[in-house]
Sequence to fold (173 residues):
Amino acid sequence: DGTGTASDAVTEYPDWTHISHNLIMNGPSGNRDLGNLFPCVDNDDGSNHYFISNNVCAYGGFKNYLGQDKIWEGNLVVYPGRWSGDPCLCAWGGPNESFQNNTCIMFDDSSSPLQLDGSIGGLHGCKIDFSNRTLMANVAMTSRNKYYTTDAQFTLECGDKQYSLAELQAHGW
Fold:
């Protein structure tokens, strides 16, 4: 009828969901054992369009499994592996993802601060190949983060390969 406004227009793109300025504590509860805890924020199974910023996340990190369009920015992640060995970010197979300006403080050196994977099939082993642009489009970009580990070392394990922070940075990650 022509009386609608521009804000009433239908769009094919979803609005962004913002998770911001929270203190999120993860830990054992009555329905979970210590080996089966979820991260502080679990974007799973195809979720998309999340902007997760300026949170303090204790005893768990952030996770994405086969979703897309996620931004994690300006978060403080403290001891993400305390209960379950989780990293600060676990991002498996999703385009348009960015982990930037975050601070990650690891509890021990039993796991890497990051888990990145470009495979879309899910649970078929980690795939990172810096010469394959199609595959790398599904690996979350990382930049300007601070990682604190007990031994001052950083290693990203992917399949049978290991990458240092310097190697990731040399490839633009």
